[in-house]
Design brief:
By secondary structure, the protein is mostly helical. 73% of the residues lie in helices and 0% in strands. The longest helix is centred in the first third of the chain and has 17 residues, at 6-22. The protein is elongated. The chain starts with 5 loop residues before the first helix and ends with a helix. The model has no long low-confidence stretch (mean pLDDT 96).
């Protein structure tokens, strides 16, 4: 099994941010079928902020990074 490292988590979060922003409308369309259609906007807004503040996020540990990303989103 491959260990989870800080670098792996950071790369995964950056990929998630990119995917959320690139697929904003698609996620809204999917959510519109079963919800109010704003999921894509909510995710993209949160991940844009994560991207904008990336250099200032506390990345001392994986837990700290997840905590700060969760607070933003």
């Amino acid at each position: 099994m491959t260990p989870v490292t800080q670098n792996t988590v950071e790369r995964a979060l950056k990929a998630m941010a990119r995917a959320a922003v690139e697929n904003e409308q698609y996620l809204c369309d999917l959510d519109g079928v079963v919800g109010d259609g704003d999921l894509g906007t909510s995710l993209a807004t949160g991940f844009r902020e994560v991207e904008a503040t990336w250099e200032t996020l506390d990345r001392a540990s994986i837990g700290n990074l997840f905590l700060h990303v969760a607070r933003i989103i």
